[in-house]
């Protein structure tokens, strides 16, 4: 029997990630090849004409799984009945801007959209925040949508996770699909800690295969940390196709489950695991089953890693305070 359609909201749908993401969703890359979808696309009034153009292209592409399109500048209409919300809308970082510069522009957007989601989304709606500062926007959304379960509000660090897989695959000249269990800890920012301590290729630990501690502790980490800035420098625009693809990976694994023996990185509400302060949206290694994520427990954390986990937690604590000061 055909499945009922799932309603997927994409905010900022007329922007560049939106333009890459909506066809992926309509093709079944996010929710599976047998899952019909109805796309809800939200943007702001100045982008209304462009948004309508995206809607026209979706119609023209004749996606068999796409059962309807709502394209609107009205947050209430956009949020009504949605089962999945991918929050891309916001003010992007431009070349030379620090992420903190975009904070005040974005937290007020996330405060007001929290209310629309809380009131009008379907019960148990899963929320993924992509727009930067992603962790802190997600935290603000959580704080201002208190009736949405905190487990349902996440942010995207899967792009960083995938970047880490890509770097290891290139270094070892192995297929990216053979690299497993890297971890992104913390913030989607340059303080994030891409950790390969527990990563493997086949049955072999990545640190043993690479045998270049200096690269692992320095070049690898800074390449992943700075990849977003490197893309902006090269494209004069922030990453879009890789962000869209990673957003699909994030939701697919959350809804459909992670493969046995594999974890992924997601920005989730911290419960104090690994001595990360509770009450931050922090990227952890997670496994997903039955539509719920769980933080992987019991991984050893060496002294080098401990410092990096703490550093990025400190930045998130500062961002949280800054976000609240922007709202007051
Ligand atoms: P973009 O400027 O091309 O698109 C953003 C869209 O959001 C625009 O169409 C804009 O009109 C719209 N918008 C602005 N305010 C809005 C509001 N209140 N409601 C709805 N829509 C609104 O930017 P982009 O390149 O698509 O990037 C989007 C965001 O994603 C940026 O914040 C960027 O920094 C972030 N990003 C995050 C990651 C990640 O891994 N977490 C990766 C890449 C980019
Ligand atoms: C990325 O990681 O590519 C983006 O978050 C960069 C940015 O700041 O928009």
Give a verbal description of the structure:
This protein has 328 residues and is α/β, with parallel strands linked by helices. The chain has 2 domains: 150 residues, Rossmann fold (3-Layer(aba) Sandwich), CATH 3.40.50.720; 167 residues, L-2-Hydroxyisocaproate Dehydrogenase, Chain A, domain 2 (Alpha-Beta Complex). The protein is 43% helix and 19% strand. Strands 3-2-1-4-5-6 form a 6-stranded parallel beta sheet. Strands 7-10-11 form a 3-stranded antiparallel beta sheet. Helix 5 links the parallel strand 5 and strand 6. The radius of gyration is 19 Å and the shape is globular. Bound molecules: nicotinamide-adenine-dinucleotide and (2S)-2-hydroxybutanedioic acid. (2S)-2-hydroxybutanedioic acid binds next to helix 9.
TL;DR of this structure?
This protein is 43% helix and 19% strand.
């Amino acid at each position: 029997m055909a499945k009922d359609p799932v309603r997927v909201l994409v905010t900022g749908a007329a922007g560049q990630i939106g333009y890459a993401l909506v066809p992926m969703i309509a093709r079944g890359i996010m929710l599976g090849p047998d899952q019909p979808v109805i796309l809800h696309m939200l943007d702001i009034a100045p982008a209304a004409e462009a948004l309508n153009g995206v809607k026209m292209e979706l119609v023209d592409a004749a996606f068999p799984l796409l059962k309807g399109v709502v394209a609107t500048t009205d947050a209430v209409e956009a949020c009504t009945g949605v089962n999945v919300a991918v929050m891309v809308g916001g003010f992007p970082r431009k070349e030379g801007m620090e992420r903190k510069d975009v904070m005040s522009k974005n937290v007020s957007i996330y405060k007001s959209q929290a209310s629309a989601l809380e009131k009008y989304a379907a019960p148990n709606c899963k929320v993924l925040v992509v727009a930067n500062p992603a962790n802190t926007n997600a935290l603000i959304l959580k704080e201002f949508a208190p009736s949405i379960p905190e487990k349902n509000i996440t942010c995207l660090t899967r792009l960083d996770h995938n970047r880490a897989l890509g770097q290891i695959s290139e270094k070892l000249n192995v297929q990216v699909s053979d690299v497993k269990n890297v971890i992104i800890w913390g913030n989607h920012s340059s303080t994030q800690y891409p950790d390969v301590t527990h990563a493997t290729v086949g049955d072999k630990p990545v640190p043993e295969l690479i045998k270049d501690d200096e690269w692992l502790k320095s070049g690898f980490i800074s390449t992943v940390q700075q990849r977003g800035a490197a893309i902006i420098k090269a494209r004069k625009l922030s990453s879009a196709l890789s962000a869209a693809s990673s957003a699909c990976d994030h939701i697919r694994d959350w809804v459909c489950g992670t493969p046995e023996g594999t974890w992924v990185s997601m920005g989730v509400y911290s419960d104090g695991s690994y001595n990360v302060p509770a009450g931050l949206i922090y990227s952890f290694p997670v496994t997903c089953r039955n539509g719920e994520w769980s933080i992987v427990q019991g991984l050893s954390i060496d002294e080098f890693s401990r410092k990096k986990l703490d550093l990025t937690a400190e930045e998130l604590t500062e961002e949280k305070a800054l976000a609240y000061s922007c709202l007051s």
